[in-house]
């Protein structure tokens, strides 16, 4: 799927998400009703693996940041939709149908298993966590098609509210102040090339590195926690994104060419992200061009 996006030069995140749903999620959720409740964490991890791979994010990046930035539909919400429709279809099927036979087999084998590991127990456990009505074996409590839509929509709203609560509980995180509204950020579906979108994504969630055209540029600290200090002109300053964009004399030429409007503002390490107009495509394009310049300077300096 990544190769298809790259080959087709698809940079719109909505289109990429639709491709993921069509090519990957559809395969992952095949017969998920039978086995998915026991593998819920693996299913959720698969979605985040895709998003991290897409935007070149490390495993340390919080899941709530990724979902809030992209407004991607949680895959567990898709699982709930599939499960509800499966149970709803049972009401209209004959007892000798294949789908009803599968259901009866699941119920039948629960008597031979540890009750806590039975299919109905696992389904009820998942539904209880999501505050969805518990499954009734005689199907008397299964919702209609219209009610299913409301249940799934309600679950997604709960998931979003949980993400917002998590964000609000982290007041010291810059991203909590940066995220002004719930929804996919405008730049993800803009006309910027996708390398620029990756870079903007990484800067917004305040990473220790940025990537430009597939090349990684580690700055403030690596995974081992070692800090790189810039000692030019005795600045003795941590070499992070703020340092490169606003302070280091090495990159003054790039600031003059691409970064003048932002550079004129008086900012510090704590609020520089808040000073950028993230909805202005021209500014974001100039930030990308600035980092193109900065990467060339860094490559030149590394040879000496």
Describe what you observe in this structure.
This protein is mostly helical and 304 residues long. It folds into two domains: 2-178, no CATH class; 186-302, no CATH class. It contains 15 helices and four strands. It has helices at residues 2-7, 13-28, 32-35, 40-55, 63-70, 75-92, 98-109, 119-129, 145-168, 174-178, 194-204, 241-247, 252-258, 260-263, 281-302; strands spanning 209-212, 215-218, 229-230, 237-238. Strands 1-2 form a two-stranded antiparallel ribbon. Strands 3-4 form a two-stranded antiparallel ribbon. A hairpin with a 6-residue loop joins strand 3 and strand 4. Mean pLDDT is 79; it is low at 221-227.
Question: Can you summarize this structure?
Answer:
With 304 residues, this protein is mainly alpha-helical. Helix content is 56%, strand content 4%.
What is the fold's blueprint, element by element?
Blueprint: H1 2-7, H2 13-28, H3 32-35, H4 40-55, H5 63-70, H6 75-92, H7 98-109, H8 119-129, H9 145-168, H10 174-178, H11 194-204, E1 209-212, E2 215-218, E3 229-230, E4 237-238, H12 241-247, H13 252-258, H14 260-263, H15 281-302
Antiparallel strand pairs: 1-2, 3-4
Short descriptors:
304 residues, mainly alpha, 2 domains, two-stranded antiparallel ribbon, 4% strand
Shape: elongated
How much β-strand is present in the residues?
A: under 5%
Record field, number of beta strands:
4
Q: What characterizes the major β-sheet?
A: 2 strands, antiparallel
Write out the strand line-up for the largest beta sheet, numbering strands in chain order: 1-2
Low-confidence stretches: 221-227
Helix-strand string: HHHHHHHHHHHEEEEHHHH
Helix proportion range: 55-70%
Mean pLDDT: 79
What class would the helix/strand composition place it in?
mainly alpha
- Distance from N terminus to C terminus (CA atoms, Å) equals 40 Å
**Count of helical regions:** 15
Total discrete domains: 2
Integer-rounded radius of gyration: 24 Å
